[in-house]
Structure formats: structure tokens, C-alpha cells
Amino acid sequence: MTRFVLHRIGFYVLIAVLLAFFTVPLLWLASAPFTSDPTYKVRLPDFTSENFRAILDNPYALGSLWNSVLLAAGTAVLVVVFAALAAYALSRVHLPGRDALLYTLLLLSSIITGTAAMVPLFQLAVELHLIDSQLGLILIMTGGLLPAAIFMMKDFMDSTPKSYEESARVFGASPLQIVRHVVVPLVRPGLATIAVWAVANVWGNFLMPYLLLSDVDKQPAAVIMYTLYTEGGQANIKLLATFGLLYSVPVVLMYLFVSKKYGFRFHGGIKR
Amino acid sequence: MSAIELRGLTKVYPGGVKALDSLDLAIPDGEFFALLGPSGCGKTTLLRTIAGLETATGGAVVIGDRDVTGLQPGARDIAMVFQDYALFPHMNVTDNIAYPLRIKKVGRAARQQKAAEVGARLGLEQLMDRRPGQLSGGQQQRVALARVMATQAQAFLFDEPLSNLDARLRLEARTFLKKLQHELGVTTVFVTHDQAEALAMADRMAVMESGHIRQIGTPAEVFQRPANTFVAGFIGSTPMNLLDGVVRADTLEVTGCKLAVPQSAEGLLHDGEKIVYGVRPEYNVYSAEPVDGSLGGNVSIVENLGASYLVTLDVNGVLVQAVVPEGHEPAIGDEGYALPRRDRALIYRDGELVSA
Amino acid sequence: MAQATLPPEVLDDAKARRYSADAAGLGRLRAGAFVAPALALISLFLVFPALWVLYLGLSNYRLTGAAAAAPRLVGFDNFVKALTDPEFWNSTWLTFEFVLGSAVIGQVVLGFLLAWIMRDRTGPLKRIVEGLVILAWILPSAVVSFLWVALLDRDDGTLNTLLHSQDFAPLLDHPMLSIIIFNIWRGAAFSMMLYGAALGNVPPSHLESARLAGASGWQQLRDVVFPHIRGHVLTNLLLISLWTFNDFTPFLLTAGGPDGKTEVLAVHVYQVALQGGELGYGAAVSTVILLINLVVAVFYLRLLRSKK
């Protein structure tokens, strides 16, 4: 009996420690924006709204949030659609060299996200007249995210049984009908996961928009956050905390929404 | 006409594995036909090749009077129930049943009505709005059946239709399926690894092994006169006794006992040749007293089969089984004699049945 | 009973029209069409610039100065320079430490631990724990790195408050450890989700048999659970190793300091290429990083194949 009790106690202690580990760093984000004259200290806030007013005074703050939404949504849509199509084809049809191709692309995508690729990307964008173009930025980021997205999506599709598709096929459905009627509804959780992952990636991406967009009005929140960081040499804690909170809220809301609707599972395709 | 014919059907996988080896088969219209065999024998591959989900490397598949070998699965006018039923989880029962009609471009009202009709016929009226996830195994099976019935296809293919049901349900479903097929009169081919299921449901069956058909026949034929030792050992809830023996003039010496030559092999044996003597435990007449021409030994195991007992005799080191009606079961260690029925015993030479 | 046979003249070799045998009947042509849009974008915006970087590595291109206007091909000079540069090796070593500590050990262990203790639960506790872990992953890097700067601050940081210590500056005194723990905190969610799903796939009967045979918790883990989840684990270890290897976020916490003590390769490339302006050399270093990634990937793939 005591063994069981000890187990229980141990379990709850462990949970408490883990919860603390994950909560403590977040506390500041919950308190500082609501505190007048905040420092790094976590204190009980006096619930002031002056910080938020300061943000509103900044001409680029709110606009940048909208830009982030635009970039993230645009990229996510392209990534999901293209990755799903490609992953389905690669999963079901044996195209020559597909495994080697996938792994090569995966490796190359890690080079692209590195800083050394910035200059080639910049020059490429100049050649294609995609500088200062949000569409161009979306296309470039999509290209960078696709290999990993296809990789994950294919893994998911591989674990989805083929009998649904075969059943529809014997009933006379054409391949496109099968994709529409059967496959897409089946892999919706996987699509939702990829969408969330893509949005989270784009939302936090600072380097690409910083380099490829020159008009400040088009800059997303990630870049504005950075400028708040370095403005005047010293971190403006008030603005950083508040904008940080505003900047974080949309992604969190999106995650909550998607996970409620579809559940958020990277590997939901693993058969239960 | 919806007879199914296979001519020289061959399927070789890249890498050289021969899943189907030049199979010939003719299934007349309206027959309930079973493909039976152990795992890996090719029965599912054969079913899928008939469906068109696998392409044949050689030979032909003819459905009705059409050679469908080169046709896509959707163009063959057949319907298939998969082992896991493949009911679309995001559609309710009505939409699932109506799906084939949707592909055929039947209007919404018409196909929903047809789905309701077919569903009612199978007792699904209360469940039409539910999703597959909310149904029991038996209900899911009926929805899958309703779906193929709605297609009004020329032939039905079932892949292990009963294996996803629990044991009790399986027996009920067996009767249900046989009755349904009989009413519908549609040529149906089903795959199973359960020989009792095949014997109970099929009008005729093919027993397969390693890509070959070992025997085609009615359940009675396959049970009473298996064409070779493989079929003999595979069919029957109690395994057939297959005993090594030698021909001695006009009698047989089997495990040290003298047995008469069975009716089926009269006049066909040669003195001195090695044979295998086959007799089902059900066709061994058991006696506690010594009998001429029987296999005698000591009882080593007695198993209760319900209304009868399976008695295992140790005959000179070889195990021989006999079925004994209730009330006559012996005790372990008793002396026992199993007399094979001359009209049911069989002789196998080099694995093949000896018969006129 | 003989098999049904047909007269020989009826038997013919089916000239089966080749149609595709994949599940939906897509066929190679349509499959190609499905892959095309992704492939087009990837070729243009990923493959091409990546190859360009490889090419740049062979030149002496700079951001400013004479070499910016008229770069020359210098062959493998940059690579030689990299391989003989102690700063490069320092960064490489630090990166391996970073990947090993935070990804291979940290995230995997923590992720697995979380999945394991939450495995049979449902309800609010599970949702809260999962929610917080995922929050750490979802929040943008700029925000979380600043949160950790705040946490670890010497004067006002929450860590100091909790530990009742003064002047404890982990970012200065234990920079590698700080960024490793930070990365574990940040990335545990991915592994937690993976192991959660994989654990759900271990048949309970196997665990029970082991328990009945007297296996302890640890033995059950080792003998039943791990063999079952190996394949997926390896595939995803590959992903997080690659991601962590190329992760730039530590820069936001420590800017590579103090004194280059946390200058992982991604940061090193930034310093060299954008701060120092040596783009050709930076590109060469990036190429070397790619090669290391390749070796790591091949290593994982070998492991995967040997499991199958």
C-alpha cells in the first residue's frame, strides 16, 4: 500500500516540477504587459493599459501583425496544398528515386534556412523582381518549408490504410474523385498539423522578411519585434513585453482552434 | 450472365515471386464460391486480381461474356467488401451505401431512397444517420453488404468477410450471408482461411496452396474425397488420419496393422508400393473389443467435442484418432480398436488420391 | 476430382493493357502532375539558391570591397581555411554539444517522459500539461528568447528570485548549459507528441505479459516499448537533429557569446558572412555544415534500415 502511495506522491511531485519548468518562463509574459514601468521582475501587475496605448502609438505595430497574418496564411495554404498533393503521389505511386530525392531535399532545406543562403536568395529575388513583394516572400518561404512538410505528410499518408481508396476505386470512382471524396477527409488531421506547423514557422521567421521586404509597412511582426529590441541600443522593456504578448496571441489562438477541431497530432497517421 | 472465368491466370511479382501460377477456374452464374487456403497461398491475390486491384502478368479474367483483364477495377461491374469493410468514416450510413450510386451520377434523392431501401432490407433503418465509428462490428458488416448490394453489380467479391467479427457473431453471420446470397442470386466469390466457414457457406470451393489450386469441388466432394494429402490435411475440423503404409498383395500393412483395401482404390494398387492411408476420425468405427482389419492400440487422449468424443489411440507409436459418440467414451489406457469404413477410406500415392 | 480446364486453343496470353496498380489508380503521369507544383517551387527557391551557395563557397565573394565587385573563383581555399580555423572547430564542437545535449538527449528524454507519464490519462491535467508544453513551442522565437533573457537576468530575473540567489547570471557563467536547457524547453513538444502517438500503439497485452513475467517498469520499457517504437523514433530523431543543428535561435539569447562560448555553427556563419562580410567563406562553411548534416542523415538511415 505504501508503495502505491509513494508512487502517487512521486508522480505528483514530478508533475509539479515539470509544470513549474514550463510555466515559470511564461509568467513574465503574463504580468509585464499589464504592469506600468515593468522590469524583468515578475510582479503582480497593476493592470494598466498604458502599455497597450504605447503600442498603438507605434505606427507600424498593429499593421505588422496583419502582415504576419497575411504571410503566415498565404504560406500555410500553399504549403498544405502542394505538400499534400506531392506526399499523396509519393506515398501511393512508386516514382523512381523518390526516397533519395526526399532526403536530399530535406538536407538542402537546412542550407536554405541558414544565413549564408541569404545573399543568393536576395539576388534571386532581385532577378525575379520579387523584392519588396509579399507574394514573392510567400513563394520563397513555401519553397523552404515544403521538403519537411512533404516528409511529414508522406509519413502520415503511408500509415493510412489503402482499403478506402481501393474500395472507392472498385465502385468506379476516378482517381481525382477518390482524392476528393476519400483521401482528403481521411487526412484532415494531418493537413491541420502541417498548417499549424507552417504558420508557427512563418510567424516567427525574422530573417527572410527582414532581407526581402524594404517597405516597413509590409514588415511582419517578427521584424518589428526585432526593431523594438535594438531601437536606441537598449531594450525597451515596456514595448517589448506588450508587443510580445500581442504578437504571441494569434498563434496560440490558432493552435487552440485547430486542436479543438482536429486534434493536433504530428503522427496521427500512426495506426491505433 | 455473370459467370466468372479465369484462364491461365498468372501473377508474378517483380523479384520473381509467383503469387498465381496459371490458374484455370470457371464459376457459373449465381454460385457462392469460396477460395480457401492457408496464409500466403495466393487467395487474396487472386481475389484482388479478379477485382483488378492487382494486374495479371498473364492469362485472362472473364466476367459475364466480357474479357475484363485489361479493364480498370471501376469498369468491371463488380463490387467488393474488404476485410476491414472500408466504410468511409466521415460519411454517415446513408451516404456510405449511396456512394457507388453517386459515382454513377444518380441524383441525390434517388440514391438516398435506394440506400434506404437496401438498408431496410438488412435491418439498418435505425442506423442510417450514424457514422461507422458509432456502429458495432456486425452492423458495419451489414452496411458494407448494403453498399455492394446498392451497386447491383454482376458479381460480388468478399475478402475474409467474417474474420473481423467475434466468434458468436460469426456463426450467425455465416447463416445470414448464405441466405442473402441465395436470395440475391449474384455470383459471389469469397476468400477465407477458415475451412469450416468455406464448407458451411460455399456452393463450391477451390482449395489453394502456394499460388496453385489444389482442388475444386463442392464441400461434400472436398470433404469426402480430397484430391491430395494437402487438401486432406487442411479440410476438416478434426484432421484426417494420414498413415504411412505398404501394399501387401490384396491387403495393406499400416503401422503394423493389417487393413482391407478401401473401395475407392480396389484393383488400383501394386504389391509392395508405399502408400498413405487416409481416413477421417469420423469414419473410424471405434470398438473396445479386437476387430479384424482395424488399428489397435492404447487410448492416450480423450477430448470432449460436445455430443461426441475425439479419442487418440497410440498404435505402435503412431497416433490414430477416432470419433466416438457420447456414452461410449473409453478411459485413458484402455485398449481400443479403430475400424475404418471401407467406403470412406482413401489411398494416396505420392500425395495424390488413387481413384478410378 | 480434376480441375476445370479449357481446351488449349482458348488460352491466350492476356495483353493486359497496363493500368496502374496503385491504390487510387493515379498512374505515373498524374502522380507526376501532383508532385510538379511542389517540385517547381522547391527547384526555384530551394535547390537553385542552395546550389548557388555551394558555388559561392568556391569564390572569394565579399559584401564590400574589391571582391564584392569582382569576385574570383578560389577553388577549395575557403574549405581549407575553414578546416584549419580553430574558431570553426570550436563552433563545430559546440554545435555537436548543442545537438547532443538538447535534441538527442534532452528533448527525447523529456518528451518521452512527458508522454510516458501522461499515457493513460485524459482530462484536465493532461490538457494543461500538454498545453503548456506546446505553448513553449508555438510562441515565436523572438518572444521566448526574450522571456528567457528575462528569466535568467542577474538582477531581476525570476530564476534568481526563486533560488534566492544574487548575481547569478547563467547566461554569462554557464552559457552552453543555458541554451541547451532553453532548447529542451522549446522543443520538447514535438517529441512529446510523437512518443504519445507511438506509445498508444504498443499493444497493452505485451506490456501486461511482461509485467506478469515480473519485469520492472524499466524492463518493460526496454523490452516491450522501445522495440515497438524504434522506427518512428529514428525518423524523427533525424528531423530534430537536423533542425537543431541549423538552429539560429541561440543567437537571440547570447549572440554567440560570451567570447564565442555559444557560437554554434549557424551563428558562426552569421558572424562570418554578415558581420564580417566574407560571403564566399561563409558559403563554404555552410557547405561543410551541409556535409555534416549529410553524414548524420546517412547514419540515421543506416540505423533505420538495419531495424527493418
UniProtKB/TrEMBL annotation, chain A:
Membrane-traversing stretches: 9-30, 65-88, 100-122, 134-153, 190-212, 239-258
Membrane topology of this protein: Multi-pass membrane protein
Subcellular location: Cell membrane
InterPro entries per UniProt: BP-dep_ABC_trans_perm, MetI-like, MetI-like_sf
Biological process, per Gene Ontology: transmembrane transport
GO cellular component: plasma membrane
Keywords attached to this entry: Cell membrane, Membrane, Transmembrane, Transmembrane helix, Transport
Family label: Belongs to the binding-protein-dependent transport system permease family.
Protein name as it appears in the record: Sugar ABC transporter permease
Organism: Planotetraspora mira
UniProtKB/TrEMBL annotation, chain B:
GO cellular component, one term: ATP-binding cassette (ABC) transporter complex, substrate-binding subunit-containing
SMART domains (alphabetical): AAA
One of the GO BP terms on file: carbohydrate transport
KW Glycoprotein (keyword) present: no
InterPro entries hit by this protein: AAA+_ATPase, ABC_transporter-like_ATP-bd, ABC_transporter-like_CS, ABC_transpr_MalK-like, ABC_transpr_MalK/UgpC-like, Mo/tungstate-bd_C_term_dom, NA-bd_OB-fold, OB_MalK-like
Keyword Translocase recorded: yes
Coiled-coil spans in chain: none
Lineage top rank: taxon: Bacteria
Entry keywords, A to Z: ATP-binding, Cell membrane, Membrane, Nucleotide-binding, Translocase, Transport
Molecular function GO labels: ABC-type transporter activity; ATP binding; ATP hydrolysis activity
Domain ABC transporter: 4-235
PROSITE patterns, sorted: ABC_TRANSPORTER_1, ABC_TRANSPORTER_2
Pfam families registered for this protein in UniProt: ABC_tran, OB_MalK
Listed name of the protein: Sugar ABC transporter ATP-binding protein
Source organism of the structure: Planotetraspora mira
Upper lineage: Bacteria, Bacillati, Actinomycetota, Actinomycetes, Streptosporangiales
